[in-house]
Amino acid sequence: MTVAARGAVAAAVGAPLTYQDIEIDEPGAGEILVRIVATGVCHTDEITRHGDLPMPFPAVLGHEGAGIVDAVGEGVTTPAVGDRVVLGWPWCGQCRNCLAGEHRYCLRMGEAVAGGARLLGPAAGRSAYHFPDGAQLYGHFFGQSSFATHSLVLASSAVVVPEDVPLDIAGPLACGISTGAGAVLNTARPEPGASLVIYGVGAVGLSAVMAAVNTPATTIIAVDRHVDRLHLARELGATHTVDAGTEDDVPEAVRRICGGPADHALECTGVIAVVEQAVASVGMLGTCILVGGAPAGATFAVDHVSTLWGKRIVGTLGGGGRSDTLMPALLDLYGQGRFPYDRLIGYFDAEDVERAIAASKRGEVVKPVVRRDGGGRTPAGADEPEAGVVGLA
Ligand SMILES: [Zn+2]
Ligand SMILES: [Zn+2]
Fold first, then answer.
1. Which of 161, 322, 329, 363 has the fewest Cβ atoms within 10 angstroms?
2. Ligand minimally distant from the alpha carbon of residue 172
């Protein structure tokens, strides 16, 4: 049996996303079918469409989905039909890193996020997605392919969203927002009085700023070349800003602010020249955390001697840790007004993914979210935020 759905299909590398009728197999053992209410749009969707991840095509992308459980497969006890969920990253549950609780570093992460097929179960290695004529379609992108009316996902990757949290803000927790916040809370873990510099304050970097406000770090520096983003970073809790568009020597500007090297640098741009600045911003026992994705095959150079002095350069994926602890904590902080990431979100209609990507590229919106059915707010339409482009004043 299959489920009739609609999804944004990229026919080939570089092709536009076009909404069309698709079919998805019913959930098997350990799987759930989720009716997608809203999904964030992430830079990774765009670079995958252009071939930077080895995703097979034609494919349905999207990986920041939130929705309502429509059906559950054999053996699934949680979540239940009717539960509101956000779709975290998939993980195999069987490898050394999964068994150690490091779900983000599942040894099968590559195939789990971009293999285009089911990761587990008797149908592992085969896609549950088809065109109505039976032709092959690839899905399961980050275990969800959320640019669609429905997603088939592993029950283990879904996290239940509390009733008082609108579904149309939950989706971005799956990737972008958790990536920035987790890099601070799971990886940097700043000590009292620590300094932290964040290179690139888009959705990921601004999430890092908001997370840092919830730590004992006392110096939080935002670096960007877009002045409006620096203003927003200040509003969200950055104590200092550096305009990379006018500052000749950014690491030196960081040292002036900190009275020496920073304790932690977070690199959220993926631009190699900026990676090297971030590494140069920290000194003895400092930690440079690589968050942003550079193009496939990119390499960087660092000064050898200064790196010997106890400097650590650490990569992170999706903020590290595990979805089922990080996402509920961030939702609690949001509810308490301590992590106001809804300020980054701009809304678009469900099938306007291309418009959302374009607005994001032009810098008009920090975190685009496409949604249907009023974003799942109850009663429908009540206190619904303004549609269109928000986030930047
Ligand atoms: Zn694993
Ligand atoms: Zn993402």
1. 363
2. 2
Query: Separation of 362 CA from ligand 2 center, angstroms?
Result: 18
CA atoms within 13 A on the CB side of 323: 29
pLDDT tens, position by position, 48-62: 999 888 999 999 999
Band of residue 377 on the pLDDT scale cut at 50, 70, 90: low
Q: What architecture does CATH give domain 2-175+321-376? A: Alpha-Beta Complex (3.90)
Q: Which ligand is nearest to the CA of 104?
A: 1
- Is there a shared CATH topology between the 2-175+321-376 domain and the 178-315 domain? no
CATH number belonging to the domain at 178-315, selected among 3.40.50.720, 3.30.413.10, 3.80.10.10, 3.30.1140.32: 3.40.50.720
Any idea which ligand is nearest the CA of 108? 1
State the DSSP code for 388. B
Q: Which range, of 94-98, 179-183, 372-376, averages the lowest pLDDT?
A: 372-376
CA of 216 to the centre of ligand 2 (A): 28
Which ligand number lies closest to the CA of residue 291?
2
The region, left, alpha or beta by phi > 0 then psi within -120 to 50, assigned to residue 245 is alpha
Q: What is the pLDDT of residue 391?
A: 41
Let me know: does 150 contact 35? Beta carbons within 8 Å: yes
